[in-house]
Amino acid sequence: MPEKNQVERAVLAALERDAAINLHRHPVRVEYDHARRALILEGEVEDIVAKKRAYEHASRIDGVQGVMDRLRVVPSEPRGDGAVRVSVAAALLQEPALLNHALRAHNKGLVESLRAPPAADGVIEIAVQDGVVTLTGRVGSLSHRRLIGVLAWWAPGRRDVIVEIEVAPPEADNDGEIADALRLVLEKDPLVHADQIGVRVRDRAVTLAGVVATAEEKKMAELDAWYLLGVSQVINRIEVRG
């Protein structure tokens, strides 16, 4: 199968050239299904940056019409599924923008109601398996959907976040929506001074600019941008002046 081997080699070569992806430390399995023109990425990566960039590289390879992303992020603080579920639920329960949303958690085949407002604006359901957080339900805006995803990514121990939440009524997505959602996320991140960071989005590519005191804050702002659904690239031009 020359085409299969050619596509797989092209993907691995693209990943190898990216400094954000360390294939020697975290090997990635690449499998191409010629009949479906689909590619599978599987393995562990260092962070959300490596995960998202690997997906974008694979999507741009000739002959690939779809990518199944099974990459998992190595957690800085390993935790069991129960602890991850509790952390995600706590973050969603405490978020003011979600106070009028019903919240349910799936645990060992049972569904536990964590909050049930009498006239809920939406519903969010949480399930965690092998560190992978899956979020389902319905919310009223893309901003809510994006915020929920980021809050789940912030939970210690999560290895991936899958957001399958419906937006009803449907909203058209655009660069302005992504920029507004990112500004909201930066404002909510206690590790970031949002007023010192500028955000610009063009064709789903985010550019960050400004001045912060530490390299850690610069990195956190970039991670927040990558956590956001719909972002294809992050250009971090934030300066560190400690």
From TrEMBL:
Gene3D superfamilies: 3.30.1340.30. It comes from the Bacteria. Residues 3-75, 174-242 form the BON domain. This is BON domain-containing protein. It comes from Candidatus Muproteobacteria bacterium RIFCSPHIGHO2_01_FULL_65_16. The lineage of its organism: Bacteria, Pseudomonadati, Pseudomonadota, Candidatus Muproteobacteria.
